[in-house]
Design brief:
The protein is α+β, with helices and mostly antiparallel strands. The protein is built from 18 helices and 23 strands. A hairpin with a 6-residue loop joins β5 and β6.
């Protein structure tokens, strides 16, 4: 499906062009090899929250939320030669009122059942929205709200028009709304009620509408999922009987598990292990996709990064080609939030290159020198969703920065602890000594990837603007982006925004991940999409 066709439905009532999978949803389910099991070693240290809105970042969504649950729209991961686009899922179509551009009508798919056999309908949509934002609702769940309440930011009301139609009103025109709700996942109201209204009980035996069902899990160890043979989209009924997810934050442990046969799929490979894995008959897959490994900068009082000269110096100090070599070539030097090939890259006036002499000069102009280094603390995690090889990479960056006049301290915490610190904002007591946050970032969704970290309206907890970045020009460009209801206008406004934040050196951007994965020889039918997520329903194990 073409993204432009999808976006154009924002201005009119239309059935969304469907992916092959959706068009074929009434075809017979496919056969599956008896006993087949996909066994994945995740980078996570714990099993993500299983109630609907998963914890552990985008990797939690990839392996728990998107397997057990569905959203109104999903990424078409069958596309591998270009960035994935959103296609219909639990919503068959949508329209936006032409006059106000604040009224969204969502037309829901009929015939979808939750795992417990209850029906997905408009009542279920409203109930799930309430669980995230309505604090006096019996089903309100703070744990899930912490993960996804910002996905409904700007929504002032929602109501049922009929059993399969929902109306959502936003406070202002917001062309990005459908991106945000693509990450809202739907839990079964009937199952929650049958369990006595307990989310703790629900977590043990969750019920979504997704292609897999959770059979059991052991915290900090493994989750056991089984194929949902009754899944509503028959072309996406899983091709394996079982999916087992292992929490393995240590990269060497993941490699050992693959070589021993404990798992047959490994995320985030250590580069030095790849030659050995290839010699062992293991297949290695990688591809550039919309993802960046950056440092989010603090604009809180006392931060040296309030000075643009310091921000530019930090960007110019890093040898990104050297970083790529450190990673065995499985990374691409970044010149901004998005790759230079993206229609959103624009024409920044600041070129991010390796120029340590220019970095030293800028630091000198900012008042630093041999007897007065620029002291900063950077926060990272020892592993986690999209963090690549964070310890080695942070040590590399630390050495680069120290050579030009910084004095860098690296603080290492658990991935979920880092995400908690991110949600508190740079001004929080826990972050007052931290001037940079190393949190890998997915930018396939422009609202989440750019607007939520740039716009002053999205300073935490209303969004992901951890650094308290506030810039009048950037705010106007964000405003223009949410008012752009055609694909051409949206690309133009996003490219203007991206060019501006790069020119301002808003963050330190280091590399784009190519996400090397290792799959055992008997794992078939995988072609990595240009997307953070993968469609595990299409994988076969021989």
């Amino acid at each position: 499906m073409d993204r432009r066709d999808f976006l154009k439905t924002a201005a009119m009532t239309a059935i969304l062009p469907s992916s092959t999978a959706v068009l074929a949803s009434n075809q017979p389910s496919r056969s599956v090899r008896p006993g087949s099991e996909l066994k994945i070693a995740m980078t996570l240290s714990d099993i993500p929250l299983t109630t609907g809105q998963s914890t552990q970042g985008a990797e939690g969504q990839r392996f728990i939320a998107m397997t057990i649950y569905d959203a109104l729209f999903r990424w078409d991961l069958s596309q591998t030669d270009k960035p994935a686009e959103l296609v219909p899922s639990l919503a068959e179509s949508y329209s936006v009122d032409k006059e106000t551009r604040t009224v969204w009508t969502l037309n829901l798919r009929k015939g979808v059942k939750f795992h417990d056999g209850s029906e997905f309908n408009a009542d279920a949509v409203l109930w799930n929205f309430d669980k995230l934002v309505k604090k006096d609702a019996p089903q309100f769940d703070q744990n899930q709200a912490n993960q996804a309440a910002s996905r409904l930011v700007g929504v002032v009301s929602y109501k049922k028009l009929d059993d399969y139609t929902v109306e959502v009103r936003t406070a202002e025109p917001d062309s990005m709304f459908f991106y945000r709700v693509s990450a809202v996942y739907f839990s079964s109201p009937a199952h929650w009620k049958a369990l006595g209204g307990s989310w703790a009980a629900f977590a043990k035996t969750p019920s979504g509408t997704g292609p897999f069902k959770l059979e059991s899990f052991v915290p900090r160890s493994r989750a056991n999922l089984v194929r949902n043979a009754e899944y509503w989209d028959k072309q996406r009924v899983p091709r394996v009987e079982k999916l087992t997810l292992f929490a393995m934050p240590d990269p060497s442990t993941r490699v050992a598990a693959l070589l021993s046969g404990q798992v047959n799929w490994v995320e985030a490979l250590p580069p030095d292990a790849i030659p050995r894995l290839k010699r062992s008959g293991i297949n290695i897959f990688s591809k550039v996709y919309p993802h960046v490994w950056p440092y989010w900068l603090s604009y809180a009082e006392g931060s040296p990064f309030l000075d643009i000269r310091v921000r530019k110096a930090a960007n110019l100090a890093i040898d990104r080609d050297g970083m790529s070599k450190l990673l065995g070539g499985y990374a691409k030097p970044a010149k901004g939030m998005v790759d230079t090939s993206s229609p959103w890259f624009g024409k920044p006036t600041f070129d991010i290159v390796f120029d340590p002499a220019a970095a030293r000069k800028l630091l000198t102009e900012a008042g630093y020198g041999p007897g007065k280094p620029c002291k900063i603390t950077l926060l990272t995690s020892q592993a986690g969703s999209g963090q690549m090889q964070p310890l080695a990479m942070n040590e590399f960056v630390q050495a680069n920065l120290n050579k030009v006049g910084f004095d860098v301290t690296i603080e290492v915490v658990d991935w979920e602890a880092l995400r908690a610190r991110r949600s508190e904002g740079a001004g929080a007591k826990s972050n007052r000594s931290v001037f940079g946050l190393n949190n890998s970032w997915s930018i396939q969704d422009p609202d989440f990837g750019m607007l939520s970290v740039t716009w002053s309206k999205r300073i935490v907890p209303k969004g992901n603007n951890w650094g308290l970045y506030q810039d009048e020009i950037a705010d106007k460009l964000c405003e223009a982006a949410v008012n752009a209801f055609t694909p051409e206008d949206r690309d133009r406004t996003l490219s203007d925004l991206h060019a501006y934040i790069v020119s301002q050196a808003m963050w330190i951007w280091v590399v784009h991940d190519t996400n090397p994965r290792a799959l055992a020889a008997n794992v078939k039918n995988f072609d990595p999409p240009q997307n953070w997520y993968v469609d595990l329903t299409q994988i076969e194990v021989g």
